[in-house]
Amino acid sequence: MAISTEDIKKLREATQAGILDCRKALESANGDYNKAVDFLREKGLAMAAKRADRVASEGVVELYSHGNGRVGVMVEVNSETDFVGRAPEFRSFAHEIALQIAASNPLYIKEEDVPAEVLEHERAIAAAKAREEGKNENVIPRIVDGSITKFLNEVVLLRQPWIRDESMTIQDLLNNLVVQMHENITIRRFNRWALGESQAE
Predict the structure, then answer these.
(1) What is the pTM of this model?
(2) Dist. CA 141–CA 12, nearest whole Å
């Protein structure tokens, strides 16, 4: 089927992918916009994986204050080069990550950052709750798995739905930027403070 310039333009604006990549995605999806977006996301995952071993030590420390100073966030986002670190798209991404942290209060950046004992504790709570509710022992492992998935989606930044578009995760947002900038980009560390809260031990 014929792919129109308008279709390519719309997809490019939504994904920031190159014109040729957008045309290829639409062609492989037979003109289906949503499938083309998925195609580009999958490609983004592949490109992000290829770039993941490159050293990223440039970038920015983004500061964000919310609610008239009631919540403060500091996040470090790294790129491979200073050139990308100064790009408006990169700065905008760092700001979005600070907003996400302020709004969603993640505890970890990546799933691998979650300590094993924390996961074991959550598993034990989920299993005890299921037994308390009288669930059959055969289904408890599935219930526990579901609880762990929900827990990780809440506390791991990269797994959280993006506050501006819940059809995307923060990992999707990061992958799109990696594809757009052609560099490894990482969220290195963050701190979030809320007025009056006590710091964790």
Answers:
(1) 0.69
(2) 43
